[in-house]
Write a structure and sequence with these properties.
Layout lengths: L3 E7 L3 E7 L5 E8 L5 H17 L5 E8 L2 E3 L4 E5 L4 E4 L1 H9 L2 E6 H12 L8 E6 L3 E7 L2 E2 L31 H5 L1 H10 L19 H9 L3 H25 L3 E5 L7 H14 L9 E4 L6 H12 L9
Helix pairs in contact: 3-9, 5-7, 6-7, 7-8
Length: about 325
């Protein structure tokens, strides 16, 4: 009988619980929205999603992995701090172990997504790999010599918080000025568009309610040749390329995979950013780092969490 493990991707507004087999395929899934970030409320919602997927499979599920936003204590499964949830020392692993009576492994959600994409997606077959998810923020992780980099206290991989413009950039949610995340996330694209409004006073992008402006609308406007959209997209691409060139200088990966909502632009994004990254690459040979769209999409976190659970932790080298 094939082993089945449950992987949970816990986000600020949504949770996905999935039964994942040894090949990284999702064989059952359940999703729930999260409106209340109170710890006990979140545990109930996660529990309901897990109950649903357990009921949908005839195979015995012995292990659960969960990727959560925030700083994770891998030894205890506690969330030391999560700004998204406003949690401090939340006993996530212990609560789920008590709820389901099985082993529960907890890791950072972005690192879980990296593990999933590395093992079963675009990172397969590489030794040095980076995943970046371009959503509301920028998450991701680094694989070096075939092993996920965790760092001294598990905090390695916070690529979104290196600074591009420390004196004149956008304020990041972390409190610093000019972080990569503040400029090259989906929110960063919106900020670029809003900053350009004075130059495009008749722009259709802000003719309604500017506060409702979304990154997808800006990208679609750019694809359609709209002047405002193209100007915002150009600024965004410059900042994204600068950050990616920095990543290449930091860790020299074989491949960088881009996931998240903005990366759904596909060739429109890659055709613009790859030449710019090559132009900014100096200390390693240009054009030798593949920059591609991630393959697993929004399933990477749950698949990676299950993979983490099966191996007993994020830092265990690949055996599958």
């Amino acid at each position: 009988m094939a082993r089945k493990t449950i992987g949970i991707d816990l986000g600020g507004s949504h949770v996905l619980a999935a039964v994942v087999d040894d090949a990284g395929a999702i064989v059952a899934r359940a999703e729930r929205d999260i409106a209340d970030h109170d710890f006990e409320s979140v545990i109930k919602i996660v529990g309901a999603a897990v109950d649903e997927v357990i009921a949908s499979t005839k195979d015995k599920v012995e292990t659960i992995g969960i990727g959560s936003p925030g700083d994770i204590d891998a030894a205890t499964g506690a969330v030391r701090y999560s700004p998204n949830f406003k949690w401090h020392d939340a006993p996530l692993g212990a609560s789920l172990t008590e709820r389901f009576g099985c082993k529960v492994v907890v890791g950072n959600d972005a690192r879980c997504a990296t593990l999933g994409e590395y093992t079963f997606g675009t990172g397969r077959g590489t030794r040095d790999f980076v995943l970046l998810t371009l959503g509301t923020g920028i998450g991701g992780g680094i694989v070096a010599a075939g092993e996920l980099v965790r760092g001294n206290l598990g905090g390695a991989g916070e690529i979104g918080h290196h600074q591009l413009r420390a004196t004149d950039g956008f304020i990041c949610g972390c409190g610093k000025t000019g972080c990569f995340e503040a400029h090259a996330s989906g929110l960063g694209l919106i900020r670029h568009a809003l900053a350009l409004v004075p130059s495009f006073p008749r722009s259709a992008l802000v003719s309604g309610k500017p506060e409702k402006l979304g990154s997808k609308a800006i990208r679609k406007a750019a694809e359609a040749g709209d002047g405002h959209g193209l100007a915002a997209w150009a600024r965004y691409i410059d900042d994204l390329a600068t950050g990616l060139a920095n990543v290449i200088a930091f860790v020299n990966p074989e491949c960088i995979a881009l996931g998240g909502g903005v990366a759904s632009a596909g060739a429109f994004l890659l055709d613009a950013v790859v030449p710019r990254v090559d132009a900014l690459t100096t200390m390693v040979p240009r054009g030798k780092t593949r920059i591609v769209a991630a393959a697993l999409g929004n399933d990477a976190g749950a698949i990676g969490a299950a993979t983490m659970a099966r191996r007993g932790g994020l830092s265990v080298p690949a055996t599958v």
